[in-house]
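name: query_chain
kind: protein
chains: 1
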Amino acid sequence: MKLAVHHVFFDYEGGPTAIGPGIADFGKAADEVGLDAISVMDHYWQMIQVGGPELNMLEAYTTLGFLAASTTDCELQVLVTGPTYRHPGLLAKIISTLDVLSGGRAVLGIGAAWYEEEHVGLGVPFPSTAERFERLEETLQITRQMWSRDESGYAGKHYQLGRTLNVPQPVRTPPIMIGGGGERKTLRMVAKYGDATNLFGGRGDQAAISHKLEVLRGHCEREGTDYDRLRKTLTWAANPMDPIEDSRAFLDELRGYADIGIDQLFLMPASQPGVGQYVRRLGEIVPKVHEI
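structure:
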């Protein structure tokens, strides 16, 4: 199983001047211990669930560009962006740039978006749920086209591109990870457009996640795509289990997830400072996770 760490908090001790060195240390630690991927959130404001808008939040792709220069091996992505944050042509260009500068390590993580308050606060349009899913599907179509060298343009309901020129092309066509467990729309889009799914679970959630994967398998059959080609990833929900202190129980949980098909885990450190230190502590279990 692959292991990733999702960087959630940016309130480093020492204030704004400590953020850059802290994030660089996070990237350095990820390479040191052999993490397969690292990710950050794509929000304008910090989420209400973990402290709210008054806490620090960085622009995601600027941060990933910085991390590209601080790392050499791990994949880089947001977990996850939405169609409301950037025009899809620009998004495809940003991901392409990240991929080129990182030597082929970019992943597009995307979902339908949900954080209305930050959109209203900064004056960014936040359409209905139905429209966001329409825009998500068009964004997926546009990014795939821009990475295919097809320059013929795109005419959709919400987006019209006269020429989908994208030079330079990515070093590696970035895998598309679609986040969310919606059984009717989201998992259908994973089957039709995606290379990976990202679900949300934790201790004892194997049965619920297994059900989602079976729904995804059904969508793949209807779309005529290969279920086995998809990366099945899980964002580990906050719970009392510490992956390091309770490593035996944690690894047992992961074996249960591997049995149902999960092949990559994203961990979210529960504390704000010292993410690099947290990652180095994870070094004790990274080889054991890779063996699962």
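note: The two ends are 5 Å apart (CA to CA).
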